[in-house]
Design a protein that fits this description.
By secondary structure, the chain is mainly α. Helix content is 73%, strand content 0%.
C-alpha cells in the first residue's frame, strides 16, 4: 500500500483538478484547477522516473555501473513545467481581457452576455 501512495496522490490531484475544471463557475478557480492538473502530470512523471537506490544519470560519476534513474522523465518534467507556466500566463491574460469586456468572472454570465 505504501508503494502505491505516490500514484494515489497523482490520482487524487488529477480528480480534484478535473472537478474544478468541470464544476466551478468562476474563471479564476478554473485556472487554478488547470494548474492542479498540470501539477498532477508533473508528479506522475516524477513517480515514473524514480528508482530505489538509483544514482544520478551521469556516466562519469556513476562508478561501477550502479542503477541510474532515467533522465527522460526529468527532462519531460522540466518541459512540462515551462509549458504549464506559459499556459497559466496565457489563461490569466485571457481572464483579464474577459473581465475588462464583461466585468464578471462567472462563466454562465459571460455565456449569457455573449454577442
Amino acid at each position: 500500500m505504501i508503494n502505491n501512495m505516490p500514484m494515489i496522490a497523482v490520482g487524487a490531484l488529477f480528480v480534484i483538478g478535473l472537478y474544478g475544471v468541470l464544476f466551478k463557475r468562476n474563471i479564476i478557480k478554473i485556472a487554478i484547477a488547470v494548474s492542479v492538473v498540470e501539477s498532477s502530470t508533473n508528479l506522475f512523471l516524477i513517480v515514473l522516473g524514480y528508482r530505489t537506490g538509483g544514482s544520478i544519470p551521469v556516466y562519469t560519476l556513476a562508478g561501477d555501473f550502479k542503477k541510474m534513474v532515467l533522465p527522460t522523465p526529468q527532462a519531460l518534467t522540466l518541459t512540462a513545467i515551462v509549458i504549464g507556466l506559459a499556459t497559466t500566463a496565457l489563461l490569466l491574460a485571457l481572464i483579464m481581457l474577459l473581465y475588462k469586456h464583461y466585468e464578471t468572472l462567472d462563466v454562465y454570465e459571460i455565456r449569457r452576455l455573449r454577442g
